[in-house]
Amino acid sequence: MPAPLEVEQAIILVKASPHPSHRYQETVCCAGVTPNREWRRLYPIRFRHLSGDAQFRRWDRVEYRGRRPSDDPRWESRRVDEPSLRNHGPIPKQERAGFLGPLIRSSIADAAGRGESLTIVRPRSLRFRWRPKSVEEVEAERTKAAAASAQGSFLDAQLTELEPTPYHLGMGFEDATGRHSMMCGDWETPTAFWRWRRDYGEERSLQLLKKTYEEDYFQRGMVLALGTVAKRPRQWLLLGVIRLDETTQPEFL
Fold it and tell me: Which pTM was predicted?
């Protein structure tokens, strides 16, 4: 029997890029932290199908009914009853750094050693990187999205297909145990690219992303949200880039 549904709240920190799904058309995996600082991985959420009052942004406190999935051993994961989602608004800006401080780890290895599959790390150095996708890669992404969209129920609203970015967007960063290079899996980075590309052109949009992450975020304070892959638990992905003030409290507990 499936685990019982339980009512929980989580402060949203990450919304991953939409993922084509043959069953749901498109899903988004989200990650957040409960009020008592326990990580939660929430899925499957059809974010663009949610009504306006159920949609949420980073730092919003959402309430939902969820259960431990039978096919995912990661203790932070919850399968969400989508209609139960309620947005209770953002936590105050002045509370954010203090709230997340105890969850910051010195490295990916530190988090893995604690049995965590979600974590945040404050990078010691950071470089925003990009490289062009091939024509074949872009077309394959379009085809996959179109095929998933065609599988949607007639009860589902027709979604506008999201255009794949023409670049792989990623980060090179250093934590306490070494250097890493990962693609950005968040929704915000490609969204910012398309917005700035429309306003300023392609090359300028990439330079603005570079400046935002390497200067504005890094110099003012930031953390990287990272998580493992269910089928490859030793593989970590970059899920989100979060502007977060430095705190005077110990970061690495």
Answer: 0.89
Stretch(es) of the chain classified as CATH 2.40.50: 6-91
Rounded to whole angstroms, the Cα distance separating 224 from 213 reads 11
Per-residue pLDDT 10s for the chain (253 aa) are 677 899 999 999 999 877 655 555 567 788 999 999 999 999 888 777 677 767 889 999 999 999 999 999 999 999 999 889 999 999 999 999 999 999 999 999 999 999 999 999 999 999 999 999 999 999 998 887 676 555 544 334 444 567 889 999 999 999 999 999 999 999 899 999 999 999 999 999 999 999 999 999 999 999 999 999 988 889 999 999 999 998 754 443 3
Q: Which fold has domain 6-91?
A: OB fold (Dihydrolipoamide Acetyltransferase, E2P) (2.40.50)
- Compute the distance between CA of residue 104 and CA of residue 22 in angstroms, rounded to an integer: 36
User: Which tokens sit at 117?
Assistant: 């599959």
Look up residue 47 and give its DSSP letter.
Answer: G
Distance CA 129, CA 170 (A): 5
Would you call the peptide bond into 90 cis, given omega within 30 degrees of 0 as the criterion?
Answer: no
Dist CA 218 CA 222 (whole Å)? 6
Interacting residues of 195 by C-beta distance below 8 A, sequence separation 6+:
205
Neighbours of 70 (CB within 10 A): 10
What is the Cα–Cα distance from 27 to 33, expressed in whole angstroms?
20
